[in-house]
Write a structure and sequence with these properties.
By secondary structure, this protein is of the alpha/beta class. The chain has 2 domains: 274 residues, 3-Layer(aba) Sandwich (Aminopeptidase), CATH 3.40.630.10; 111 residues, Alpha-Beta Plaits, CATH 3.30.70. The chain is 35% helix and 26% strand. 48% of the residues are buried. The mean pLDDT is 97.
C-alpha cells in the first residue's frame, strides 16, 4: 500500500532529514535574504531531477509529476526564513549567524517538504497528478512572501486545485496533528502613529500641547474600537506595543511615536476597523490641539481552511497516523501569510506536533530556546507526502 511505503521511506530517510534540518538551523537567514537556503533547496531538487523556477528572488517552485500528471494539481508549501533572535540553545546545530535564529521552525517546514518531495519522487508510479512544491521566502515580514509569489503567478501554470501547508507546534506532542475547518488564524496589520505638538517646559504645561498626554488618551480610546464596535462573537485584538517620546524629566516632547498591531478574524470587520482607527485617532488628537501622522500597514489576511478540503485532509491524516493522533486545532490570533493562498484557492493549514514534555522540549516559537523533538521531522515529511499524494 502507498501508505506503508511512505511510512517506510520516511523512517528510512529520517537520519538524512535530521541532517538537513541541522544544516538549515545552523545557517538561518532573515526574510527576503534566504540566498544560501534557496541555493541549498535548489541543489536538493536538482539531485532528484525535479525541475524548478526561481520566484520572488529567493523562492523556489518545483514541479513533481506522478502518473497521469494532468489529472490533478496540488500545491505543498514550506517557508524558509528565520527571525532576528539570538539563539540560547547549546546544541551542535546552534545558529552560526549572530542574531539570527530559526525560532519559528521554518527549518523544519523546509525539511519536511524536501522529505516529502524525496519520498514522492521515489514513488512516482504509486500516485497520480502533479505536485507544485513551493519553498517560500519572507513569511515573517510584510508584505509576506506568499503575496509576492502570487503576484508572480505561483498559483498558475499549472493552477493547483488546493494548497496544503504545515506549522510546527511545540505545545503539541510529537506524533500528534491538529486540523480545523474555517477560520483558524487572524489577519495582521501594523499600526504606526506619530503625534506632534508644541513641546516645552514640563513646569508650564499650559504653554504646550502635551504629546505624552495625547498619546495616553489615544491608547485608551483605541481599545473602544474593539470593546464597543466589534462583535463579541468575532475575535479581534488591538495592542499598542511601543511608545517613544521624551528624553528627560522636565521637558514635554514635541513628538511621540506609537506602534502596535491589529488582528481580526473577519475581513469585512478588518477594513471597517481601519476606518474607525483613522477617524477616532484624528478626531481625538485634533481635539487636544495636536497633529497626527498615521500609517496602517496592511499585512496578512485571515487564514481560512476550506471546509471540504480540511475534512478530506482530516480523514486522510487519520488513516495515516490513527484517529487518536488527530485533534482539532484552536483558533489563534497569530497570523500567517498562508492566508494569501487560502484567499485565492482552497487551502488547508495544519499543525505538526513537535514538543516532548518528558524531554523538556516545550519552549514556544519566537523564543531563543525554541527547539523540537526531532522525531517530528520524519512524521511531518511522511504526513505531507501522504496528503500531497491523496488529498484532492
Amino acid at each position: 500500500m502507498l501508505k506503508d511505503k511512505i511510512k517506510q521511506l520516511a523512517s528510512q530517510y529520517s537520519p538524512d532529514l535530521i541532517s538537513i534540518r541541522h544544516h538549515l538551523h545552523a545557517h538561518p537567514e532573515l526574510s527576503y535574504h534566504e540566498f544560501e537556503t534557496s541555493k541549498f533547496v535548489q541543489e536538493q531538487l536538482a539531485a532528484l531531477g525535479i525541475p524548478y523556477t526561481i520566484m520572488a528572488t529567493t523562492g523556489v517552485v518545483g514541479l513533481l509529476k506522478g502518473k497521469n500528471p494532468d489529472k490533478r494539481v496540488i500545491a505543498l508549501r514550506a517557508d524558509m526564513d528565520a527571525l532576528p533572535i539570538s539563539e540560547e540553545n547549546e546544541v551542535p546545530y546552534k545558529s552560526r549567524n549572530a542574531g539570527v535564529m530559526h525560532a519559528c521552525g521554518h527549518d523544519v517546514h523546509t525539511t519536511c517538504l524536501l522529505g516529502a518531495t524525496r519520498i514522492l519522487s521515489e514513488l512516482r508510479e504509486e500516485w497520480e497528478g502533479t505536485i507544485k512544491l513551493i519553498f517560500q521566502p519572507g513569511e515573517e515580514k510584510n508584505p509576506g512572501g506568499a503575496s509576492l509569489l502570487i503576484k508572480e503567478g505561483v498559483l498558475e501554470h499549472p493552477r493547483p486545485s488546493a494548497i496544503l501547508g504545515l506549522h510546527v507546534h511545540p505545545q503539541l506532542e510529537a506524533g500528534k496533528y491538529r486540523f480545523r475547518g474555517g477560520k483558524i488564524m487572524a489577519s495582521a496589520d501594523e499600526l504606526y502613529f506619530t503625534i506632534k505638538g508644541r513641546g516645552g517646559h514640563a513646569a508650564a504645561p499650559q504653554e504646550t500641547v502635551d504629546t505624552i498626554l495625547v498619546a495616553a488618551q489615544l491608547i485608551v480610546a483605541l481599545q473602544q474600537i474593539i470593546s464597543r464596535n466589534s462583535s463579541p462573537f468575532s475575535p479581534s485584538v488591538l495592542s499598542i506595543t511601543s511608545i517613544q517620546g521624551g528624553h528627560t524629566t522636565n521637558v514635554i516632547p514635541g513628538e511621540v511615536k506609537l506602534m502596535g498591531t491589529f488582528r481580526a478574524m473577519d475581513e469585512v470587520w478588518r477594513y471597517k476597523a481601519h476606518d474607525l482607527i483613522r477617524k477616532m485617532s484624528a478626531e481625538l488628537v485634533h481635539s487636544m490641539g495636536a497633529e497626527i501622522d498615521m500609517v496602517i500597514d496592511v499585512g496578512y489576511p485571515t487564514v481560512y481552511n476550506n471546509e471540504r478540503l480540511n475534512a478530506a485532509a482530516v480523514a486522510a491524516a487519520a488513516e495515516y497516523a490513527g484517529a487518536e493522533n488527530i485533534e482539532e486545532a484552536e483558533l489563534r490570533m497569530g497570523a500567517e501569510d498562508f492566508g494569501f493562498y487560502s484567499q485565492v484557492i482552497p487551502g488547508c493549514f495544519y499543525r505538526l506536533g513537535a514538543g516532548n514534555v518528558a524531554k523538556g522540549i516545550t519552549s514556544g516559537v519566537h523564543t531563543p530556546t525554541f527547539d523540537i523533538d526531532e522525531k517530528a521531522i520524519s512524521l511531518g515529511a511522511g504526513m505531507m507526502a501522504w496528503l500531497g499524494a491523496t488529498v484532492n
